[in-house]
Write a structure and sequence with these properties.
- By secondary structure, the chain is mainly beta.
- It has one domain: Jelly Rolls, CATH 2.60.120.10.
- The chain is built from no helices and eight strands.
- The strands form two sheets. A five-stranded antiparallel sheet has the order 1-2-8-3-6, with no helix packed on it.
């Protein structure tokens, strides 16, 4: 807890949320997750590694409590802007095909997903975060 005079670091090194939607973790590997359930006072953030093309996807949803940032990064350090794959992401009913590392700002209330990993040559890193204490999908959870 921080009160301006003291600081106690909280370091999270594992996925502290339900991993059942990810199956065996081979195709989509949840690595780290934090929210106010695991670290009181924090906001939601997660880190996932996508190892293979997949049909698995979060359903279309929105977040009415906060904006969200979705980030996709290629893992080839010789070509960091190359996603080394292809991600199909739907935002507000429009399809976007990502082939380069990207950050996407999704305003609160805007429907997004499904998300499909159409092609994966090297692992794709996905990071998402929102200034909300908990991850909630409106109309779903």
């Amino acid at each position: 807890m921080t009160d301006g005079n003291t600081f106690t670091p909280t370091i999270v090194t594992r996925y502290l949320a339900d991993t059942s939607p990810f199956g065996d973790g081979r195709v989509v590997n949840p690595v780290i997750f934090m929210d106010s359930n695991s670290v009181p006072g924090s906001f939601y953030a997660e880190y996932i590694v996508i190892n293979e093309a997949s049909q698995g996807t979060p359903p279309e949803h929105s977040h009415d409590d906060a904006d969200e940032i979705l980030m996709f990064f290629g893992s080839d350090m010789e070509r960091p802007h190359d996603l080394c794959g292809e991600v199909e992401l739907w935002i507000d009913g429009q399809k976007y095909m990502l082939t380069e590392s990207a950050m996407i700002f999704v305003p609160r209330g805007v429907k997004h997903c499904p998300l499909y990993c159409r092609r994966v040559e090297k692992p794709i890193i996905m990071v998402s975060t929102a200034p909300a204490p908990y991850y909630r999908r409106d109309g779903i959870e």
